Amino acid sequence: MKNIKHILFVCTGNSCRSIMAEAYARKRFKEEALDIEVRSAGTLGIDGKLPTPETLKVIEDAGIDTKGYESTSLTKDLIDWADLILVMEPEHKNIATAMLPEANGRVRYLGEFKKPEEIRGAVILDPIGKPLAFYRVLFSVIKNHIEELIKWLKA
Questions:
Q1: Residue 98 burial by Cβ neighbours in a 10 Å radius (0-12, 13-18, 19+)
Q2: pLDDT of residue 113
Q3: Where are the domains of the chain?
Q4: Which of 41, 60, 96, 140 has its CA 20 to 30 A from that of 103?
Protein backbone atom coordinates (compact mmCIF):
# COMPACT_ATOMS: atom_id res chain seq x y z
CA MET A 1 0.00 0.00 0.00
CA LYS A 2 1.26 3.46 -0.91
CA ASN A 3 1.89 5.96 1.90
CA ILE A 4 -0.67 8.48 0.68
CA LYS A 5 -2.93 10.16 3.22
CA HIS A 6 -4.17 13.22 1.28
CA ILE A 7 -5.39 13.38 -2.33
CA LEU A 8 -6.40 16.59 -4.09
CA PHE A 9 -8.47 16.51 -7.29
CA VAL A 10 -8.08 19.59 -9.50
CA CYS A 11 -10.07 20.90 -12.46
CA THR A 12 -10.91 24.36 -13.76
CA GLY A 13 -13.93 25.63 -11.83
CA ASN A 14 -14.29 22.92 -9.17
CA SER A 15 -17.95 22.61 -10.05
CA CYS A 16 -17.98 19.39 -12.11
CA ARG A 17 -15.04 17.02 -12.70
CA SER A 18 -13.06 17.42 -9.49
CA ILE A 19 -16.25 17.46 -7.38
CA MET A 20 -17.37 14.19 -9.04
CA ALA A 21 -13.94 12.69 -8.41
CA GLU A 22 -13.86 13.84 -4.79
CA ALA A 23 -17.37 12.55 -4.06
CA TYR A 24 -16.82 9.15 -5.66
CA ALA A 25 -13.34 8.69 -4.20
CA ARG A 26 -14.57 9.58 -0.71
CA LYS A 27 -17.33 6.95 -1.02
CA ARG A 28 -15.07 4.25 -2.44
CA PHE A 29 -12.16 4.90 -0.08
CA LYS A 30 -14.53 4.49 2.85
CA GLU A 31 -15.91 1.23 1.38
CA GLU A 32 -12.36 -0.04 0.84
CA ALA A 33 -11.27 1.08 4.34
CA LEU A 34 -8.57 3.32 2.87
CA ASP A 35 -7.52 5.96 5.37
CA ILE A 36 -7.15 8.72 2.79
CA GLU A 37 -8.63 12.21 3.00
CA VAL A 38 -9.77 13.75 -0.28
CA ARG A 39 -10.43 17.33 -1.31
CA SER A 40 -10.93 19.15 -4.58
CA ALA A 41 -10.15 22.59 -5.96
CA GLY A 42 -10.31 24.65 -9.12
CA THR A 43 -7.73 26.72 -10.95
CA LEU A 44 -10.15 29.59 -11.70
CA GLY A 45 -10.03 30.89 -8.15
CA ILE A 46 -13.77 30.78 -7.43
CA ASP A 47 -14.86 30.03 -3.88
CA GLY A 48 -18.32 29.06 -2.64
CA LYS A 49 -20.03 28.22 -5.95
CA LEU A 50 -22.34 25.21 -5.90
CA PRO A 51 -21.69 22.35 -8.30
CA THR A 52 -23.65 22.43 -11.55
CA PRO A 53 -27.15 20.90 -11.38
CA GLU A 54 -25.96 18.14 -13.72
CA THR A 55 -23.05 17.31 -11.40
CA LEU A 56 -25.36 17.15 -8.42
CA LYS A 57 -27.76 14.90 -10.34
CA VAL A 58 -25.16 12.31 -11.35
CA ILE A 59 -23.65 12.26 -7.86
CA GLU A 60 -27.08 11.86 -6.25
CA ASP A 61 -28.01 9.13 -8.75
CA ALA A 62 -24.91 7.24 -7.55
CA GLY A 63 -26.28 7.35 -3.99
CA ILE A 64 -23.77 9.94 -2.79
CA ASP A 65 -24.83 12.77 -0.47
CA THR A 66 -24.18 16.13 -2.16
CA LYS A 67 -24.43 18.32 0.95
CA GLY A 68 -21.43 20.51 1.63
CA TYR A 69 -19.95 20.55 -1.85
CA GLU A 70 -18.96 23.98 -3.13
CA SER A 71 -16.07 25.30 -5.16
CA THR A 72 -12.69 25.94 -3.59
CA SER A 73 -9.77 27.81 -5.13
CA LEU A 74 -6.52 26.00 -5.72
CA THR A 75 -3.94 27.42 -3.32
CA LYS A 76 -0.33 26.75 -2.38
CA ASP A 77 -1.55 25.48 1.00
CA LEU A 78 -3.84 22.90 -0.63
CA ILE A 79 -1.07 21.78 -2.98
CA ASP A 80 1.32 21.50 -0.05
CA TRP A 81 -1.30 19.52 1.95
CA ALA A 82 -1.67 16.87 -0.76
CA ASP A 83 0.49 13.78 -1.08
CA LEU A 84 -1.00 13.25 -4.54
CA ILE A 85 -2.55 15.91 -6.80
CA LEU A 86 -4.72 14.50 -9.58
CA VAL A 87 -5.52 16.86 -12.43
CA MET A 88 -7.85 16.59 -15.42
CA GLU A 89 -5.92 18.55 -18.07
CA PRO A 90 -2.37 19.78 -18.83
CA GLU A 91 -3.24 23.38 -17.88
CA HIS A 92 -4.19 22.22 -14.37
CA LYS A 93 -0.81 20.55 -13.97
CA ASN A 94 0.95 23.66 -15.28
CA ILE A 95 -0.90 25.94 -12.86
CA ALA A 96 -0.33 23.68 -9.85
CA THR A 97 3.39 23.32 -10.53
CA ALA A 98 3.75 27.05 -11.22
CA MET A 99 2.16 27.78 -7.84
CA LEU A 100 4.40 25.32 -6.01
CA PRO A 101 7.24 23.96 -8.19
CA GLU A 102 8.41 21.46 -5.56
CA ALA A 103 5.06 19.66 -5.94
CA ASN A 104 5.83 18.63 -9.53
CA GLY A 105 6.53 15.00 -8.60
CA ARG A 106 3.18 14.73 -6.80
CA VAL A 107 1.07 16.01 -9.72
CA ARG A 108 -0.39 13.36 -12.01
CA TYR A 109 -3.36 12.98 -14.34
CA LEU A 110 -6.33 11.11 -12.89
CA GLY A 111 -6.61 9.36 -16.25
CA GLU A 112 -3.14 7.86 -16.15
CA PHE A 113 -4.02 4.99 -13.81
CA LYS A 114 -5.63 2.96 -16.60
CA LYS A 115 -3.60 0.26 -18.33
CA PRO A 116 -1.31 1.87 -20.95
CA GLU A 117 -3.25 0.40 -23.85
CA GLU A 118 -6.48 1.92 -22.47
CA ILE A 119 -5.31 5.46 -21.76
CA ARG A 120 -5.56 7.10 -25.21
CA GLY A 121 -4.73 10.40 -23.57
CA ALA A 122 -5.23 11.12 -19.93
CA VAL A 123 -7.32 14.28 -20.38
CA ILE A 124 -10.79 14.30 -18.84
CA LEU A 125 -12.93 16.77 -20.79
CA ASP A 126 -14.82 19.66 -19.22
CA PRO A 127 -18.60 19.05 -19.34
CA ILE A 128 -19.69 22.68 -18.87
CA GLY A 129 -22.45 23.49 -21.34
CA LYS A 130 -22.99 19.86 -22.30
CA PRO A 131 -26.20 17.86 -21.76
CA LEU A 132 -26.83 15.63 -18.75
CA ALA A 133 -26.00 12.55 -20.85
CA PHE A 134 -22.43 13.87 -21.28
CA TYR A 135 -22.12 14.31 -17.50
CA ARG A 136 -23.26 10.71 -17.01
CA VAL A 137 -20.62 9.41 -19.42
CA LEU A 138 -17.97 11.63 -17.81
CA PHE A 139 -18.89 10.41 -14.33
CA SER A 140 -18.58 6.82 -15.55
CA VAL A 141 -15.09 7.61 -16.90
CA ILE A 142 -14.09 9.25 -13.60
CA LYS A 143 -15.41 6.28 -11.61
CA ASN A 144 -13.39 3.88 -13.77
CA HIS A 145 -10.24 5.95 -13.25
CA ILE A 146 -10.79 6.01 -9.49
CA GLU A 147 -11.24 2.23 -9.44
CA GLU A 148 -7.84 1.96 -11.16
CA LEU A 149 -6.43 4.47 -8.66
CA ILE A 150 -7.66 2.25 -5.81
CA LYS A 151 -5.85 -0.74 -7.34
CA TRP A 152 -2.69 1.36 -7.63
CA LEU A 153 -2.97 2.59 -4.04
CA LYS A 154 -3.35 -0.96 -2.76
CA ALA A 155 -0.47 -2.38 -4.83
A1: exposed
A2: 78
A3: 6-154
A4: 140
Nearest residue to 149 via CA among 84, 97, 101, 56: 84
Tens digit of pLDDT for each residue in 36-70? 999 999 999 899 999 999 999 999 999 999 899 99
**Other CB atoms within 10 A of residue 109 CB:** 19
Looking at the annotation, which residues are catalytic? 11, 17, 126
What SS3 string covers 20-46?
Answer: HHHHHHHHHHHHCCCCCEEEEEECCCC
H or E stretch covering 98: helix 90-99
Mean per-residue pLDDT of the chain: 93
pLDDT at 1 over 80: no
| pTM of the full structure | 0.94
Q: What average pLDDT does the segment 23-42 reach?
A: 97
Q: Beta-strand (E) ranges in 34-150? A: 37-42, 84-87, 107-109
Q: Which residues of 42-74 are buried (b: 16+ CB within 10 A; e: fewer)?
A: bbbeeeeeebbebbbbbbeeeebeeeebebbeb
